[in-house]
Specification:
The strands form 2 sheets. Strands 2, 3, 4, 5, 6, 7 and 8 form a 7-stranded mixed β-sheet that branches. A two-stranded antiparallel ribbon has the order 1-9. It has one domain (about 5-140). It has about 190 residues and is of the alpha+beta class. The chain has helices at about 105-110, 130-140, 180-190; strands at about 10, 20-30, 35, 40, 45-55, 60-75, 80-95, 120, 125-130.
Length: about 190
């Protein structure tokens, strides 16, 4: 998975005083397919993000409502399915200690510096990268086993035709493989 510059956002307009807030509306095309094997947001599909940035002492608190559409196939009958995604995210992007603007921000960044940094989202100057949280929100909202409808009966395991298209008395004569060799013997005796 390569990083996309489409998800970076400049927070320059947000004053660095705690309590300041700005709201933005973004439409970002998916740079590549986002999802799992059977369902995902196709490349180029619009991802709509209602973004709210709040300045706090430690950094920028990001709240967002992410919405988009995913496409896939029903796991029972293989018909195409569409799935609407609406998911909220909230993440704290911390100031990097060397990039903090005020003494309080530097102190908060340095105090947090000794904690597990793998789980932290750090700002790159005034830039935040929304890609990780947006991707996580989309993937977590997707159904693991998408189906076209609750009453989907799937496909006949023998002929592969949808059960809804078949007659109610549809069946296949199944010969036990252990007795298959006797079929030729039976035909010979009948003749």
């Amino acid at each position: 998975m390569k990083k996309s510059k489409l998800f970076t956002f400049n927070t320059h307009d947000l004053p660095r005083r705690a309590g300041e807030m700005r709201e933005y509306s973004l439409d970002i095309p998916a740079p590549e397919r986002i999802g799992i094997d059977v369902i995902g947001v196709p490349e180029g599909e619009e991802i709509h993000i209602e973004l709210r940035l709040e300045s706090v002492t430690e950094g920028v608190l990001v709240g967002a409502q992410v919405s988009t559409f995913a496409e896939g196939e029903c796991i029972r009958c293989l018909d195409p399915v569409e799935f609407s995604i609406k998911r909220s995210i909230q993440e704290l992007y911390r100031y990097a200690p060397e990039k903090a603007h005020t003494k309080a921000q530097r102190k908060a960044a340095e105090a947090h510096d000794d904690l597990d940094e793998d789980e932290d989202l750090l700002m790159d100057g005034e830039i935040i990268d929304l890609e990780g949280p947006v991707r996580d929100a989309i993937v977590l909202a997707l159904p693991i086993n998408p189906i076209c409808s609750r009453d989907c009966q799937g496909l006949c395991p023998t002929c592969g035709v949808k059960w809804t298209l078949l007659e109610p008395e549809h069946h296949h004569d199944v010969i036990d493989a252990r007795w298959a060799g006797l079929t030729d013997l039976r035909k010979g005796l009948e003749e």
